[in-house]
Amino acid sequence: MVAPTYNIIPAGVLDASHATDSIIVTGWVLDQRVDPDKFREAWKTLITAWPILIARLRRDRKTKRWEYHVPVEPSIDGSFATLNIAGPIRDHYKYAQPTDSIRVTVKENPHHLFFPEAPRDVAELLKRDAPMVHLHITNFDDGSLIGLYTPHILCDGHGVANIVRALTTILAGGPAPAPLDHTDPFLPYNVNEANVPAPYGWRALSLIETIWVYARAFWEWAFDNNVENRDVYFPASEVKRIKAEAMRDIREEYGEKTELYVSSSDAILAYCLKLKHPPTSSSAPLNVFYTANLRKLITLPEPFLHNSVCMVITPTLPVSALSKMPLGALALHIRRTLETQTTPGAIETWVRWRLQNAHRKKLFFDPWRGEWDVVTNWREMKLVNTDFSAGLFDEPTPKVVENGEGAVVATNGSANGKGVAKRSVRCLYMWGNGIQPIPLRNWIGIWADDASGGMWTSGFFPKRIWEDKRGFGAYIQK
């Protein structure tokens, strides 16, 4: 009998319940060149410890179950690649840069620089003999791009962060991570039971309602399809000002001694929602769909790679209300949603209902005929702070001399008073995007902080929304 070349691991029930047709692509723009050989060796160590990273994504022909086919003998082939391009990065990629004021810029998405050899979509990934996860290094004369490609059915943004942390730990000479426990922690919630109550703001659509939603999506695609992906940068001074304004509004309404608060993310999101929805007479209901991290809310194995977010929805407001509400009231509306819908009882209800309905009905926001915005917050992952310094090229040991004043200086000019200064690499820009059959729309990403305390956000909106001078258009610099 021929020994199997793959071990089959079924996708987790939550992994397979949504976003199965999406790929997460993440990238770092670094101010120095990195050594591909160091990354290759570290990646070999990581995929040996976590071979699921190089599994082949498949679906069982009879049951349609999503599966990871994990090679018995891990190989780096197809999961790691490098590229060298002459000249500076900005000759090929005009990534956005921090500014002294709020600024909206069209976002470049150079997939050909971050993952040129990876499958273009999930459909291709299913057909090809290709690993699920790809790591790519592109070196220029003045820096590097690091790209990480992960199908959403394997993990979410928190899983991406775990992969990168494990990689940089190995690069720095640390140990390989502990093996992954593939026991599905969400399986106990997947019980076939009748009448599981719907979480707040969610609805399982009927056939007629589903047809209506698809018809609306088709109309938007046909007549309002000029959707653009743009960055919105908030410098540290504006982040501080906007949060202070929100807190001032709250104190004015609830008193100086109130313990109510909002985070910087709450305040910036409220500001972005006001920009997206300037004054209007429309009374259409609006919901904001916000992804919340379950890793903080339920017990999961450690380390845990897979999807672990729930989706909470704000209480409905008429679109016209957003421009009239104080900034603090809108930010508090968001904060209270997160607090009330992430209690243990609310989380259990959401997971049970989601799994009960995942494969039988179309799930959507309620009221399903209203307006909606989707929000993803990646700030807490701190991906921009990832330290790739251990992956820099080695340099010859510099000659160390005294400078006549008692300090010890390297001949290359670096100094720390004791010896040669430690070299470090800096992330100039944190890039990310998603690949899915239906382009993103009405999406806001609270993306990353930069070293100065500024905040990067981005969005997918029609061009008419971006260029409305009552909103985002006020911050477009020609």
- Continuous helix count: 11
Shape: globular
The percent range for strand residues is 15-25%
Distance between the termini: 68 Å
User: Which stretches are low in confidence, meaning pLDDT under 50 for 5 or more residues running?
Assistant: 409-421
Rounded to an integer in angstroms, the radius of gyration calculated over CA atoms is: 24 Å
Q: How many extended strands?
A: 20
The secondary-structure class comes to alpha+beta
Report the average pLDDT across residues: 90
Largest sheet: 8 strands, mixed
Estimated helix fraction:
25-40%
What does this structure look like?
This protein is α+β, with helices and mostly antiparallel strands. The chain has 11 helices and 20 strands. Strands 6, 10, 11, 12, 13, 15, 19 and 20 form an 8-stranded mixed β-sheet that branches. A 5-stranded mixed β-sheet has the order 5-7-8-2-18, covered by helices on one side. Strands 1-4-3 form a 3-stranded antiparallel β-sheet. Strand 7 (134-139) and strand 8 (144-151) form a beta hairpin. Helix 1 packs across helix 4 and helix 6 (236-254) packs across helix 9. The chain is globular. The N and C termini lie far apart (68 Å).
